[in-house]
Design goal:
eight-stranded mixed sheet; single chain; Glyas_Fos-R_dOase_dom; alpha+beta; 17% helix; VOC_core; Glyoxalase family protein; Extradiol_RC_dioxygenase; 2,3-Dihydroxybiphenyl 1,2-Dioxygenase, domain 1
Length: 322
Amino acid sequence: MQLKGIHHVSAITANAKANYHFYTTVLGMRLVKKTVNQDDTSMYHLFYADEVGNPGTDLTFFEIPRAGNTYPGVSSISGTSLRVSNDAALTYWENRFNEYEVDHDGIMEQAGRRVIHFRDPEKQRLTLVSDETNQGVAGGTPWDRSPVPVDTGIVGLGPVKLTVQDPAPTIKVLTELLTFTQVGSYASTVEGQDDILIFSTGEGGTGAEIHLETRNDLPKERPGRGSVHHVAFRVENEEELRKWRDRITEARFGNSGVVERFYFKALYFREPNGILFELSTDGPGFTSDEDVEHLGESLALPPYFEDQREAIEARLEPLDTK
């Protein structure tokens, strides 16, 4: 039982149409699934990924139209990374961000890798990270019909940053419960703060890291549009997920048990600083109910919601994704 890396990251948007435009037209990701939040079917759940939505490539968004601003702070998932193949790709992206007037900080080095920190229109905190030196979890395959050339396209999720006030209980969960090990650190850009710690699992590398930041100068984050709801880690299959359920229960963490999400099975629990973790199976995947050529074009509903389709569609603003 070892987690394989990052499975997906789920964030919040207040505007599905603008979100779809940015992530497909500007970032060149593919919308592989247009569906609904299975816990609240009145809102869209959009999945952006590589050509077929391989595990480890999905950045997803719940649309909450009335979501207010995010006030950054601790007890949060404070940064999401997107991988590109090499350092040269970052030069392409720097130019593209300038062309599309994307708020970014330029190319810099972080933890021995070249990166670009940037923000989407809702101030989602994002980073492009180069896989130039990656020797761990392999990336996915960019969609060949993307507006971004395949050789510079986004190949998956990179390190996810957590920000907490007291790192000790989070470290204990990562290392004693979830099979992460500390593999390094790098200096914080905030004066007077401790180094940011790097934890890795599975094959390691950019697709399997958590970066843990300690901040004693911030209040608890107030989430809204542009904030991250949860991070999910990869589990091989349902049999292994059930073993994780038992292990997490034995460690006395309240959890959801195994939840059917149709495209994968999941388990949710909060670590001691209040950050929501999910464990998700690699399959069956997003081609379970749609042809590969037409992923994300129509509203996809799991079979157990099909009898509610008419009512669900009536509550959603139309979103043209063809």
